[in-house]
Amino acid sequence: MSDTGIGARMQRKEDHRFITGKGRYTDDINLPGQAVGYFLRSPHAHAEIKKIDTRKAEKAPGVLCVLTGEDAAADNIGGVICGWMIHSKDGSPMKAGPHPVLAQGKVRHVGDQVAVVVAHTSAQAKAAAELINVTYKVLDANVDPVASQKRGAPQVHDVASRNTVFEWELGDKAATDAAFSSAAHVTTLDLVNNRLAPNAMEPRAAIGSYDAGEDHYTLYTTSQNPHVARLVISAFVGLAPEHKLRVIAPDVGGGFGSKIFIYAEEVVCLWASRRAGGVPVKWVADRSEAFLTDANGRDHVTRAELATDANGKILGLRAKTIANMGAYLSTFASSVPTYLYATLLSGQYNIPNIYAEVDAVYTNTSPVDAYRGAGRPEATYVVERLMETAARELNMDPAELRARNFINSFPHQTPVIMCYDAGDYSASQKKAMEMIDYAGFEKRKSAAARKGKLRGIGFSNYIEACGIAPSAAVGSLGAGVGLWESAEVRVNPVGTVEILTGSHSHGQGHETTFAQLVSDRLGIPADQVAIVHGDTDKVQFGMGTYGSRSGAVGMTAISKALDKIEAKAKKVAAHVMEASESDVEFKDGSFSVKGTDKKMAFGEVALSAYVAHKFPTSEIEPGLKEGAFHDPTNFTFPAGCHICELEVDADTGVTEIVDWVAVDDFGNIINPMIVEGQVHGGIAQGVGQALTEAVVYDEGGQLLTGSYMDYCMPRADNLPSFRLDFTKTECPSNPLGIKGCGEAGAIAAPAAVMNALTSALGVKDVPMPASPQNVWNAMAHLREAAE
Amino acid sequence: MPAISMTVNGEKVCGEVEGRTLLVEFIRNNLGKTGTHVGCDTSQCGACVVHVDGKAIKSCTALAVACDGASVDTIEGLAQNGKLHPMQEAFREHHGLQCGFCTPGMIMAGIDIVKRKGKKLKEETIREELEGNICRCTGYHNIVKAIQAGAAKM
Amino acid sequence: MYEFEYHRPKKLADAVKLIKSKKEGKLMSGGMTLIPTMKQRLASPTDVIDLSGLGNFGVSVSKTKVTIKAGTTHAEVASNSDLKKAVPALAALAGMIGDPHVRHRGTLGGSVANADPAADYPAALLALNAKVVTDSRTIEADKFFKGLFETALRANEIIKQVSFDIPAKSAYSKMPNPASRYAMVGVFVADFGNKGVRVGVTGAKGSAYREKAMEKALSADFSAGAIAGLKIKADDMNADIHASAEYRAHLVGVMAKRAVGAAK
Q1: Pick from A273, A407, A435, A478: most CB atoms within 10 A?
Q2: What ipTM does the predicted assembly reach?
Q3: Are B133 and A716 an interchain contact pair (Cβ–Cβ within 8 Å)?
Q4: Residue of chain A with shortest Cα separation from B44
């Protein structure tokens, strides 16, 4: 292994600019003559718009234009779309209401965009927005997802009666019901998977710029997938065809899913720039705006049941989930509580019968879509809470119950679509138990009790499906796009390399790991490799970064393009060295001729390819540049075992995580330092879900957690240091043998925390987040017992 | 509009601001130093931390005009003659950053911790002292390690 | 933020003159509350009079008495070595306000004048029987905190300093709001020996207050056991998504016991 090859703990190439303040995020970009866009947003959760009077605002100082939904309709600006079609049990297509870029006729959540003011300065735009007079007829709000389906609940969209977007199912109902009727034991849990705000630290931002001379648009935006943004804005919004629209996602300060989606503000900045006569229009969300408008995550209400025989063998699993979609269907919203959720309900276990029903509902809240893990944390939470609870009810050790049910031969076809290709779940559980000294837990619990603390331990043996995804498979399930990835390798005449990738890095370190792959394959130092991403004018097309796909799919595309580079370079080298192509070998960065001392460095071959003096250009084209599109044949299935140990202060309800071990199987690892960082961050977000975070609306649909004053982000002192290790089964579906690692921590963590907490308190459930208040409330039985 | 002047990263700068212009706006918009970021509007995230007269403050919660005459240090001024500050170096070495957005504030906060608490820092101290800095990517694990290591080398 | 005119007087008298002459003037000390409030467009003063130019800061500790000038930052209070010896609880309290960056700018005077129901200082001022000295008079802490963001300060009155007698022992125990880190409940206990015990509570109600039943019990017996049986009523406690009234009432008891146990 070289210092910069696969497996090296190489420092990140991108870090220099970030640690010196030279990162270039969207808000750091200022175009000449740029104006500011400010959105007037709805103060009501649900209201009819009777009238919008913009006359005063238009005359206010510095104002270039004021636009409303009527203007958008007049200009034929289409709405933003949901790109995944789900069909209900009865075969009917999902009921997607319109999602205009500026509200038309109705506002459906607090923060819904009503108008945009474009002015020379932010202060002018804000001042003018206060002069817009909107006449609303306020309607009752529908906030509770469970109540939303009841008769008489306020209707968010006319198209969706009982606010129901779809009633979907997966699995064999009859077989599962039969398994339950024969079961020796049934464990039932009612679980709420709390709504979360993704909170990438960089708020969303966009600059739209229209060039009237070329009739061409440029959008700078905080996006995880600029090409998909361009596609949607072209094909559905209809603002400009793709060749007239350039989308640039420069440095992006975290995404976690929330920057996958195509948001109204991006479209409006482009359109407003045209309407303002080509003046670039910049919009930067403040955090309060982010809380109102960024797509949220999770928000499930689930009844889950697990049927077991007398020996703890699982016979079946049933789940009925109500998934809150918010007021509009965001870009991939419908896929999250369906194919990204119910397909993982088998967990790491042999479960012969599974049946899941999911009702997706509209409410007068901000939209919900993919957030780190997207569906898989919800699935893991259901399965792993069920396993722990079943073990307690059956008086079995939870580790033993798991071990008894592990899948241990592969490939394994679950009853819910997924075919697991490789894994060793016993190995990760065994290692994690050793690391945490599972055997010594009772001693530690007694020691804690002597200090007045309640100590608990909890497992989460997660599995996820990522590296999304085989295009034909997702197409058959309703996806509107294919989920391959593209790459182009450009070798320069001096032998340095540019990689153009459709993946997008917003913290994942692609500039480093992708360069490591190239370094490894071509035998050149990583600093001779540049990674180009995030610009539709440079990279031809790409599907972007989410679903832990950039390694398994994005890097495989690079790897395939590198295969082609190697093949062509071999041809060139054979001619130059006057040898037969079959005698040329490529190793450690040089081409040699078998049985001779003839040798050419990679850079020399690159130069020869461009000079083109020594090979017949009728047979071999000059130059050295290759591209590849890679469509995966399967998902990848990272899995592992996380164990959390925590202590509860019974007087205050404060929970402190005192130890955390994570043993993950990500297959081969390109850069362990970066992978560990991904796991740390994922766990922190999962702990945030379990202990601190929740988006809360009041009954009228007003957001109560609209800033960091009330939305509790995990801080450094809420978290421990984490102890990580790995096991390895190589992924058979890609040549690198790698699996996704970006979401694993967030998927595993909530169940580990809540299993530990319920074990500490001796209760069946505590609502997430297990804030001090919720924990204190859950301890009422202990206080009563003491009295 | 009041005219103000201050010393930023050792250089004298001046400009005209409104009363309401925030220090962070002056730094980013007037001076073009965009390494100082804004991540919230309630003075909590710490992406905007700079040093004013040697002390870490949130530049989103200070008026530029109130810093007239002050000496301000931002992330851009840390490296000297092309050599990174030990705290910057430590963040890279220990992978203390991912998306990089909170990083300038974290590094400025880290240096301030060392100024107040010394070079030998316990993990617990660092975690407590980072109360005013939010990171969403790293889970703080490597930030804590980086500050500990950077402190030792300062 | 709405535009305003900025002033930074060098003398208290000038500050008083300025605030009196402006239509809707607002005094700013550290600005840690005022600036965010103005950013949210919830305050729109015509003039902001910045008191940071007065040079009115510093902590002085005599044998029996502590005086802290209004412009003293939380960081200065937290790190003052004389205060740490005389009333370590107050230094510790200051070190729990906001975060290190906020403590470098926020001041005692600003916090006291703002009288946020979840601020830390009011609990201490009540328990320490402090006197708030303004440009025109002296107000006892008991008469200073009137309600939600409401104090006895007249419009245009400026706090100069706060002073109090050094207690025999004291401690502050705080349960922070998990998100904002303001006090969800904070209890400051001060034992003045034969002059009795005072207990100041913040975060729990619309305004900081004294828990007199506890004071009585602790004056007789300064031990956690002495207040263990006291039931704190939840009737007029604050309630929000982070803490119900019942939970807050419970926390008042827990924090008080912890403060008594930690007092030195």
Answers
A1: A273
A2: 0.98
A3: yes
A4: A708
